[in-house]
Design brief:
It catalyses: dTDP-alpha-D-glucose = dTDP-4-dehydro-6-deoxy-alpha-D-glucose + H2O. InterPro entries: dTDP_Gluc_deHydtase, NAD(P)-bd_dom, NAD(P)-bd_dom_sf. GO terms for molecular function: dTDP-glucose 4,6-dehydratase activity. Belongs to the NAD(P)-dependent epimerase/dehydratase family. dTDP-glucose dehydratase subfamily. Keywords: Lyase, NAD. The strands form 4 sheets. A 7-stranded parallel β-sheet has the order 3-2-1-4-5-6-11, with helices on both faces. Strands 7-10 form a two-stranded parallel sheet. A two-stranded parallel sheet has the order 8-13. α2 packs parallel to α4, α4 packs parallel to α5 and α6 runs parallel beside α8. It is globular, with a radius of gyration of 19 Å. It is of the alpha/beta class. Helix content is about 40%, strand content about 15%. The longest helix is centred in the N-terminal third of the chain and has 21 residues. It has one domain: NAD(P)-binding Rossmann-like Domain (Rossmann fold), CATH 3.40.50. Bound molecules: nicotinamide-adenine-dinucleotide and 2'deoxy-thymidine-5'-diphospho-alpha-D-glucose.
Length: about 350
């Protein structure tokens, strides 16, 4: 198989490229990545060669996308602007990459009848109430996201991802593009940009900066190790039913305060040694995925079922790879300081 991976130099995309490289030796990979602030050639440098090529370019560049799509069997689409806090400062690149970019890829996939897998987020469904606010603390009321949940995005980032999902639906039904969609929960693991919650706190502690928790810290995210996400996307690409959406999650709900205190404890620090900072405007309360469809219909199951162990590995990775993030740390923190975060 010849596979195009958009955004394959970013966090999740590069982990997927490594996953396919290691587990499927018959697959040739072309990474199309603009190398924005979030893309890093170093993430895939060690495997570039005969089987993995990097094309530096924009998914909105129609002639380039056309030329690359003409020569592949399948496309897995990760490229996007991905960070909520950035979209609250300037949404315009999110419209460009997430909406126009997806449209440009779909047009080329349609022309060459390329199998297309669109990587999306659970945030398209908006948020859920905190369990503590539900009757009986939410036990047994089935209040997780499913593929039946209503699209209800609450942020500039998630609304552009919802728009991109809608484009995929339209191109599948009207033009017969052979597409699937996956909506995944929060990923953690190596190569995640240090603007994101978990790597920001780990690298704060390694840099002697106090960790920063937004608001009360009661907000819940459903954590999945990025390797489990990669395995799920491969499963959907190869076994998924055209036109279907699959939700990806590993039953990893944790509130932010608990995660931060776990990081501090695992790094040998006082678990209370952090600052509460300004909350994110419109901050989604809780995400939780019901992945029954993916588990039962396609037989996927996560391997990283113990969050604390996965987190420990992630801390070890950022500790051992300080050259990978150190040059950017001051600028990332300066940007947050401007927003009071
Ligand atoms: P990331 O920001 O780490 O990486 C995005 C990559 O896309 C970068 O390499 C960047 O250079 C590239 N890119 C951005 N705009 C581009 C353009 N116009 N043309 C070509 N390349 C471009 O993001 P991530 O966290 O790895 O997320 C990847 C995908 O997974 C996104 O679509 C995101 O919505 C989705 N997702 C992320 C999570 C998560 O927890 N991070 C969870 C579910 C879904
Ligand atoms: O749910 C999937 C989504 O997960 C993806 O679609 C997004 O691309 C990805 O960025 C992620 O979105 P979040 O906004 O949930 O991730 P983030 O790492 O920015 O924040 C996680 C939680 O931590 C969120 O509730 C905000 C909080 N937070 C974040 C930062 C950066 C803090 O408390 N302190 C911080 O410093």
């Amino acid at each position: 198989m010849k596979l195009m991976v958009t955004g394959g130099a970013g966090f999740i995309g590069s982990n997927f490229v490594h996953y396919v490289y290691e587990n499927h030796p018959d697959v040739q990979i072309v990474v199309l990545d603009k190398l924005t602030y979030a893309g890093n050639k170093a993430n895939i440098e060690s495997i570039l060669g005969d089987r993995v090529k990097l094309v530096v370019g924009d998914i909105c560049d129609a002639p380039l996308v056309d030329r690359l799509m003409a020569d592949v069997d399948a496309c897995v689409h990760y490229a996007a602007e991905s960070h909520n806090d950035n979209a609250l400062i300037d949404p315009s690149p999110f419209l460009h990459s997430n909406v126009v970019g997806t449209y440009t890829l779909l047009e080329a996939a349609r022309k060459y009848d390329v199998r297309f897998h669109h990587v999306s987020t659970d945030e398209v469904y908006g948020d859920l109430p905190l369990r503590e606010d539900l009757p009986g603390h939410g036990e047994g009321v089935g209040e997780k996201f499913t593929t039946e949940s209503r699209y209800n995005p609450s942020s500039p980032y998630s609304s552009t991802k919802a728009a991109s999902d809608m484009l995929v639906h339209g191109w599948t039904r009207s033009f017969g593009v052979r597409a699937t969609i996956s909506n995944c929960s929060n990923n953690y693991g190596p190569y995640q940009h240090i603007e994101k919650f978990i790597p920001r706190q780990i690298t704060n502690i390694l840099s002697g900066i106090r960790p920063k928790l937004y608001g009360t810290g009661k907000n819940v995210r459903d954590w999945i190790h990025t390797t489990d996400h990669s395995a799920a996307v491969w499963t959907i690409l190869t076994k998924g039913k055209i036109g279907e959406t699959y939700l990806i999650g590993a039953d990893g709900e944790q509130d932010n305060k608990t995660v931060l205190e776990m990081i501090l404890r695992l790094m040998g620090k006082d678990p209370q040694d952090y600052d509460h900072v300004k909350d994110r405007p419109g901050h989604d309360l809780r995400y939780a995925i019901d992945a029954t469809k993916l588990r039962t219909e396609l037989g996927w199951a996560p391997q990283y079922t113990d969050f604390e162990t996965g987190l420990k590995h992630t801390i070890d990775w950022y500790t051992a790879n300080q050259d990978w993030w150190q040059a950017e740390k001051a600028a990332v923190e300066a940007k947050y300081a401007k927003s009071g975060q």
